[in-house]
């Protein structure tokens, strides 16, 4: 067999693999969207769910998903970015550093149901946060933190060392170099990573089953006082998110239109995650263009 | 050897006639990377307001040495220095030296132009602001002044808010020099500043350095012997971590004392 033939076979195999992947994605997306889009309506998005009757919506679940996501990001981004900066810039190579890095990797590969169980034992029971937005966000923090650390460290490591040398040689301190030169330069890749991880957090269900709960109090969208028990902003109320809702409806829903609700919710979830991804790409592109000069 | 004869013709004709005072003096400097003895017992005076070129084949320790003068080697965890480099009666190598202050007085320009991915004016103003200059008018004046000094002002005055990375390689390198000048250093170290540039941009930088030496002490590492011959007042030849020979450029090139110096400058190795 000559090298030309080998080359052709390798190329065909690679194209085949790529095609299989694209095919799976297209089929999945197509299936979910075709079945689900028809059940999405303004009414569906803006009505509370009903436990028994047909015609319930996903207003509260949708809100909860975004709210949990925002709280999770508020917790993970500052800690994760700082941790990533520490690993990339300050940590001296050695046992402690490689131990920390191993911990981050193990944490990133923990099954989310395990994180959920941990969250229930620690946040829900031990700290007494109950099934709540806050417990859920903390569990998702455990799950998301290593991703942000990784994204930040990679973002910093992908910068050329010339930038850092340039800053230091101009009499800037290490911290000032990080703050004014390295962090802005790494910002596009960190931001893209954060948005992509947001998609993952948004779609997470297993970690939330035992932490954010399977129910939502009757939310009053006119009451924005975070201390009120039925306020959408209350951190210590239970909060069923969209993906948990899909699971709950599918496993134990007794309303007559279970299938429609599940399909519609799945489609909304997928559309949101898709939008996160597209948004991350577009934003990364815009920022990159801005940085590399018009 | 014929090539050599041609080079000799192009010596700089504004070399210093008599030695100016020594500004930085290296005495018995040894630098190690782990077990690797990269620079061995180097004694080298650097005269103020002149250009000192460090030449030698790759891996001879010249870059390691120049990076020690403003302590950039601190970034490399395995690097270790011994000996004395005195500057203003202080030993630069003393761990207690405030490197941030030191680097404001001894600036550095690198082989790869490294403007920050920010606007042209921000590249100059960022270090200035960190050094405590807040007055907007002063910042603007210094920006213009520095860009004038490197001959970049007319090329970029209409697009100061554009990204510095949109400039050509040669312009970027001149911007990096301008940025170093903004802090009013005493000494500027240049580590092969033209090796990533085209000949025209290189020539501009050389011209610029000849101008700048009236106000600044310049130390330049170069691979290019003709460049050393063209612009340097003093040349130091490094080989295998040792300083083989140091002297006035013309003397070193036309009448080297050591055989390895004459072998290197006549192109027998390196």
UniProtKB/TrEMBL annotation, chain A:
CDD domains: TM_PBP2
One cellular component (GO) term of this entry: plasma membrane
SUPFAM superfamilies per the UniProt record, alphabetical: MetI-like
Membrane topology category: Multi-pass membrane protein
Keywords of the record: Cell membrane, Membrane, Transmembrane, Transmembrane helix, Transport
Residues of the ABC transmembrane type-1 domain: 62-280
Keyword hit for Lipid metabolism: no
A molecular-function term among this protein's GO annotations: phosphate transmembrane transporter activity
UniProt-annotated location(s): Cell membrane
Residues that span the membrane, as ranges: 9-34, 66-87, 99-127, 133-152, 181-202, 261-280
Keyword Transmembrane among UniProt keywords: yes
GO BP, one annotated term: phosphate ion transmembrane transport
UniProt-listed Pfam families: BPD_transp_1 (PF00528)
Family: Belongs to the binding-protein-dependent transport system permease family. CysTW subfamily.
Cited PANTHER family: ABC TRANSPORTER PERMEASE PROTEIN YQGI-RELATED, PHOSPHATE TRANSPORT SYSTEM PERMEASE PROTEIN PSTA-RELATED
Name this polypeptide is given: Phosphate transport system permease protein PstA
TrEMBL record, chain B:
InterPro entries documented for this protein: AAA+_ATPase, ABC_transporter-like_ATP-bd, ABC_transporter-like_CS, P-loop_NTPase, PstB-like
A single MF term (Gene Ontology): phosphate transmembrane transporter activity
TM segment ranges: none
UniProt key word Transport: yes
UniProt keyword Transport present: yes
Keywords of this entry: ATP-binding, Nucleotide-binding, Transport
Segments forming domain ABC transporter: 24-265
Pfam families in alphabetical order: ABC_tran
GO biological process: phosphate ion transmembrane transport
GO cellular component: membrane
PANTHER family assigned: ABC TRANSPORTER I FAMILY MEMBER 17
Protein name as annotated: Phosphate ABC transporter ATP-binding protein
Organism: Sporolactobacillus laevolacticus DSM 442
């Amino acid at each position: 067999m000559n090298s030309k033939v080998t080359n052709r076979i390798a190329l065909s195999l690679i194209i085949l693999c790529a095609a299989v992947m694209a095919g799976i994605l297209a089929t999945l997306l197509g299936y979910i969207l075709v079945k689900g889009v028809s059940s999405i309506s303004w009414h569906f998005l803006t009505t509370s769910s009903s436990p028994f009757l047909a015609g319930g919506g996903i207003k509260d679940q949708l809100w909860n998903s975004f709210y949990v996501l925002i709280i999770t990001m508020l917790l993970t981004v500052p800690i994760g970015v700082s941790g990533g900066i520490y690993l990339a810039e300050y940590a001296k190579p050695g046992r402690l550093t490689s131990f920390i890095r191993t911990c981050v990797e193990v944490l990133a590969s923990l099954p989310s149901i395990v994180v959920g169980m941990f969250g229930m034992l620690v946040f829900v029971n031990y700290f007494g946060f109950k099934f709540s937005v806050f417990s859920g966000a903390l569990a998702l923090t455990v799950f998301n933190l290593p991703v942000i650390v990784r994204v930040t460290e990679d973002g910093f490591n992908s910068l050329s060392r010339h930038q850092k040398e340039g800053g230091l040689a101009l009499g800037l301190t290490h911290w000032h170099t990080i703050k004014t030169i390295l962090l802005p330069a790494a910002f596009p890749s960190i931001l893209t990573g954060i948005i992509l991880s947001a998609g993952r957090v948004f779609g997470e269900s297993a970690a939330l089953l035992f932490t954010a709960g399977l129910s939502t109090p009757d939310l009053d969208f006119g009451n924005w006082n975070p201390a009120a028990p039925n306020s959408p902003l209350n951190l210590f109320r239970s909060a069923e998110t969209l993906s948990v809702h899909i699971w709950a409806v599918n496993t134990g829903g007794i309303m007559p239109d279970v299938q429609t609700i599940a399909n519609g919710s799945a489609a909304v979830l997928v559309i949101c995650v898709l939008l996160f991804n597209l948004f991350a790409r577009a934003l990364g592109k815009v920022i990159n263009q801005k940085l590399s000069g018009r | 050897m014929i090539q050599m004869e041609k080079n000799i013709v192009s010596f700089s004709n504004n070399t210093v006639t008599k030695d100016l005072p020594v500004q930085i003096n290296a005495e018995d400097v040894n630098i190690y990377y782990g077990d690797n003895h990269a620079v061995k017992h180097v004694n080298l005076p650097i005269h103020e307001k002149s250009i000192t070129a460090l030449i030698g084949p790759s891996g001879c320790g010249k870059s390691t040495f120049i990076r020690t003068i403003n302590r950039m080697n601190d970034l490399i965890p395995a690097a270790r220095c011994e000996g004395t480099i005195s500057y203003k009666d202080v030993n630069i190598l003393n761990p207690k030296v405030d490197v941030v202050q030191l680097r404001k007085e001894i600036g550095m320009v690198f082989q790869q132009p490294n403007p920050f991915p920010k606007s042209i004016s921000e590249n100059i103003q960022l270090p200035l602001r960190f050094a405590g200059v807040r007055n907007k008018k002063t910042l603007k004046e210094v920006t213009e002044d520095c860009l004038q000094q490197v001959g970049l002002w007319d090329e970029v005055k209409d697009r100061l808010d554009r990204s510095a990375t949109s400039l050509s390689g040669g312009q970027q390198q001149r911007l990096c020099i301008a940025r170093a000048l903004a802090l009013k250093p005493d000494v500027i170290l240049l580590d092969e500043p033209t090796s990533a540039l085209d000949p025209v941009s290189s020539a501009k930088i050389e011209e610029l350095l000849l101008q700048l030496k009236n106000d600044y002490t310049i130390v330049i590492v170069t691979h290019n012997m003709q460049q050393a011959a063209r612009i340097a007042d003093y040349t130091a030849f490094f080989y295998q971590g040792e300083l083989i020979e140091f002297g006035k450029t013309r003397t070193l090139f036309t009448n080297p004392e050591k055989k390895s110096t004459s072998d290197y400058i006549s192109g027998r190795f390196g």
